[in-house]
Amino acid sequence: MAKLGLIFHEDFSMMHSQTVPRPYLESFEDPNRLKLTIDYLDKNSILKNDDICVFKPKVAESSDLLKVHSPYLLQIVENISERGGGEVGNSSLASEDTFHLSCLAAGGAMLSSEIIVKENINFSFALIRPPGHHAGVSRAAGLCFFNNIAIAVENLRANYGFQKFLILDFDTHFGDGTSEIFYSDPSVLYISFHEYEERGFFDEIGHGAGEGLNINLPLPLGTSDDGFILAFESIFEPLAKSFNPDLMLISAGFDGHFADPVGNMNLTSRAYEIVTKKIKEMKKRAVFILEGGYSLIALPISIAAVISALIDVEFTPFDLRFAPSFPRRIEKVEVVLKEAYSFLSDYWDIF
Ligand SMILES: [Zn+2]
User: Fold this and answer.
1) What's the 264 CA to ligand 1 centre distance in angstroms?
2) CB of 152 within 8 A of CB of 110?
3) pLDDT band at 19 (very low <50, low <70, confident <90, very high)
4) Domain of 270?
5) For residue 286, is it within any domain?
6) Which of 29, 107, 194, 214 could bridge across to 143 with cysteines, CB 3.0–4.6 Å?
7) What 8-state DSSP symbol labels residue 124?
8) What is the pLDDT of residues 100-114, one digit of tens each?
9) CA–CA separation, 186 vs 213, rounded Å?
């Protein structure tokens, strides 16, 4: 049995670029993100590893997308793509192939979780784009068109009998779309670690039956590996054990890497590797779904670090040699954790 199912389609490395028009929109969400990642995995013999099985996704059907999104969003993404491109939402520019690739990304997220059931694989990683975690019910935003991870959840719920989900979002930005979609849902625990921004505070804790199940941890800018890992151990691990989901899904964004042109954190690939090993040790099935990560050097290395951890292969990423000795922000992270505990203790007796 393969240890890891990898989802990939060559269209992801060829289609849908948001890099034009320049200089008005400077975006890094382009096909090279996955072209270079696949090249890097190949050159480091990771793709050939016997413990990896590669699966090719199909486009998601409208009925799959409509489990999460409004007909309006589908129509506007499709219509603007057919027209040759244009602005769909805030910081979300479509090109002529955006509708196709967004449906393929959603299909990839669905397949990454279906193989957990059908192929009896414990871990999978969907190497897909465009990302999804900023897409809400009726809006594209932040380079995202359809919310891939939410579509995967609803597919599992409708067709495979899964009932309880935990989503960990460690992209450096708050996954406002995913949070919105599941904000009142008692069956989805959403935990987001993100750099401090104007949204995604502790008090956005969920609503109604979902109150207490939307957990935000806004981390200080410049947080480095030790602070990130401390937050993971202090918040994620106890919550995951207590909630005991049927499946963990990870919105895996790598724009917290110190070399990322968009994020403001100081993580190295080592942080992603360690967190992955800890997820693996929890002995739960877990699905990784790619979100952000825009450095064409840091993204392939970080993904390779996660995949290597999932298949128990030693991997020495070269970004560690370039990482400056960042000032420790651990005291600032500890302050944030204390504040988080004070909110969470109203809902969770583990804090
Ligand atoms: Zn991001």
Assistant:
1) 10
2) yes
3) low
4) 4-344
5) yes
6) 29
7) E
8) 999 999 999 999 999
9) 7
Q: To which H or E segment does residue 252 belong? A: strand 247-252
CATH assignment at residue 17: 3.40.800.20
Distance CA 322, CA 345 (A): 40
Inter-residue contact 268 to 234 (CB < 8 Å):
no
Whether this prediction's pTM lies above 0.70 is answered by yes
Whether 207 is catalytic is: no
Q: Give CA–CA dist 157/77, Å, rounded.
A: 25
- Report how far residue 282's alpha carbon sits from residue 144's, in angstroms, rounded to the nearest whole number: 30
Strands 92-95 and 85-89: antiparallel
Ligand 1 centroid distance, CA of 29 (Å): 10
* 293 within some domain: yes
Candidates 93, 119, 98; CA nearest to 14 is 98
Residue 106 CB coordination number (10 Å): 31
Number of domains within the chain:
1
* 93 Cα to the center of ligand 1, angstroms: 16
CA dist., res. 67 & res. 145, Å (int): 15
Taking the centre of ligand 1 as the mean of its atom positions, its distance from the CA of residue 173, in whole angstroms, is: 4
* Domain-located, residue 350: no
What is the amino acid identity at position 82? E
Of 16, 134, 173, 194, the catalytic one is 134
Q: Residue 83, exposed/middle/buried by CB under 10 A (0-12, 13-18, 19+)?
A: exposed
Q: What is the pLDDT of residues 29-58, one digit of tens each?
A: 989 999 999 999 999 999 999 999 999 999
70, two tokens: 């409004």
CA distance 68 to 60: 12
The answer to whether residue 351 sits within a structural domain is no
